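Format notes (please read before filing issues)

Several people have asked whether sequences and structure tokens are stored in separate files. They are not. Every record keeps both together, in the order shown below: the sequence lines, then the token lines. Line labels are part of the format and must not be stripped during preprocessing.
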Amino acid sequence: MKAVGYDMAYMFAYSMRERTHAHRNYVDDVPDDIKQRRLTELIEAFRESTGQCFDLQVGTVQLVLIEGPNKRAPDTELMGKSDRGHKVSFINVPLPDRNNSISDERNPVVGDFVEVRITKSSRASLFGEALAITKLSTFYNSTDEEAVACASRG
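Then the structure lines:
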């Protein structure tokens, strides 16, 4: 977990599944308390790794695809995913639309791409300030790709 530095992981304590090779041929001889301890250690290692990656993104500009309102603040915030699959939330305010030559601002909607400057991170998500509505091509033609990527682990 530490060496690879996963951005996302589904982690569960082991349990036998019927009709599998393991169920037919092996005995689950690991006590539940040991399974839970191992799972806890794995989750802690994962959170440490993602926390470091997310912290490195503070100050960068990310491209975010809007998925909908933030469940924690549905009336004031939107939530989406960066192109790396990280959750990003931001306050829903009218923004300039880089795709439209008319200078009117509008609130982003589900399906829009938004440029977001990351201002805070947690172990599970990012929070930022929305800058503009954009398109994939517009964003990548005007942004230094290294400024949006997570630093390599080494």
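For reference, the curators noted about this record: Residues 58-147 form a domain with the OB fold (Dihydrolipoamide Acetyltransferase, E2P) fold (CATH 2.40.50.140). The beta strands are 61-69, 77-82, 87-91, 95-96, 105-106, 113-121, 126-134.
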